[in-house]
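Input/output pair, single chain:
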Amino acid sequence: MLVSAVLARAGLADSAQAVIERSRGDPILDPTRNLLRIGALARTILGDQEGAITLLSEYLEVNRSAAEEIATSDYWWFRDLRDHPDFQAFAELVAPARP
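Output:
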């Protein structure tokens, strides 16, 4: 799945998308669903925010403890999603703004 992020960064969108689709894994192969998180990174690099949020949502169904970290971290992987309304709604749910 990391190859898809490299391909996306290189501007090879079709190849990156093909790798993402073929590398999703399943709960038996990838019980922690980390491949989905990496796929969300690749989709973010491609500018596919909807696809990235879909994969991130699937990842968080299994990894609820990672939700606050993803919502509040300034880590570069998902920085481009910060302005997306769905990401903002998710972030507000898991880490409400403090007065």
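Helices lie at 2-9, 13-22, 34-46, 49-62, 67-72, 85-94. The mean pLDDT is 91.
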